[in-house]
């Protein structure tokens, strides 16, 4: 479909308004075109139309529930709008379709943590780490869930593992600093915050 192709190209070139225009035309041309609705939802979200994007993602998913990227995008949009249970459902579908992708486990674990389902969140992230121990974001998310549960001392172990796997991620140092702060270890917290700032500065220099 030429309109869908034009929408994809416009979105890729950083023009969501034009992408939305082409995608909307494609949906009017074919009301069963899930890809067109997916791109339209992406463009609407990029333009800040959160609710319209959510509704459009839902329409796309109704048309093609077998597309794991749709499940993931719908889950992320629902999560951003505090529809955490719906988001968790979508993340589970994504995991079923893509069991070797760390992203689904990471998002599901974090969403379960937000829902107060700490045990399930920990189990989800531990399962993912057993499958993919080399992925730092899984260790970081597990540590964050533990810290939110009042287990800052345990979280430090996992933050350090994430840092060992990828020392360049500033967010992990920041989270580590928060954990140290909760434990009253202010010197260690300041060191971690300094490390985070250095890595942000390094990133700005590279950009």
Q: If you had to describe this structure to a student in words, what would you say it looks like?
A:
The protein has 207 residues and is an all-alpha fold. The chain has twelve helices and no strands. The chain has helices spanning 2-12, 16-29, 34-46, 50-63, 68-80, 84-97, 102-114, 118-131, 136-148, 152-165, 170-182, 186-206. Helix 7 packs parallel to helix 9 and helix 11 (170-182) runs antiparallel to helix 12. The protein is elongated. The two termini are 36 Å apart.
The stretches of 5 or more residues where confidence is low (pLDDT under 50) are 203-207
Strand content: under 5%
Structural class: mainly alpha
- For the secondary structure, the number of strands is 0
**What's the end-to-end separation, in Å?**
36 Å
Oligomer: single chain
Summarize the main sheet.
Answer: none
| Overall pLDDT | 93
> What pattern of helices and strands is seen along the backbone?
HHHHHHHHHHHH
Helix content: over 70%
* C-alpha Rg (nearest Å): 20 Å
**Total number of helices:** 12
The coarse overall form would be: elongated
């Amino acid at each position: 479909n030429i309109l869908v192709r034009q929408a994809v190209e416009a979105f890729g070139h950083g023009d969501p308004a034009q992408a939305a225009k082409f995608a909307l035309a494609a949906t009017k041309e074919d009301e069963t075109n899930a890809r067109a609705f997916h791109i339209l939802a992406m463009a609407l979200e990029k333009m800040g139309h959160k609710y319209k994007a959510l509704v459009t993602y839902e329409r796309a998913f109704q048309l093609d529930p077998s597309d794991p990227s749709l499940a993931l995008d719908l889950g992320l949009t629902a999560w951003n709008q505090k529809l955490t249970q719906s988001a968790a459902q979508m993340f589970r579908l994504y995991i079923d379709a893509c069991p070797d992708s760390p992203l689904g486990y990471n998002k599901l674990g974090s969403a379960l943590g937000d829902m107060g389902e700490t045990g399930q969140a920990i189990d989800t992230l531990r399962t993912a780490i057993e499958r993919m121990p080399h992925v730092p974001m899984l260790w970081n998310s597990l540590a964050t869930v533990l810290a939110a549960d009042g287990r800052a001392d345990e979280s430090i172990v996992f933050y350090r593992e994430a840092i060992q796997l990828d020392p360049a991620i500033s967010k992990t140092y920041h989270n580590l600093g928060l954990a140290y702060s909760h434990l009253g270890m202010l010197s260690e917290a300041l060191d971690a915050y300094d490390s985070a700032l250095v890595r942000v500065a390094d990133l700005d220099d590279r950009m």
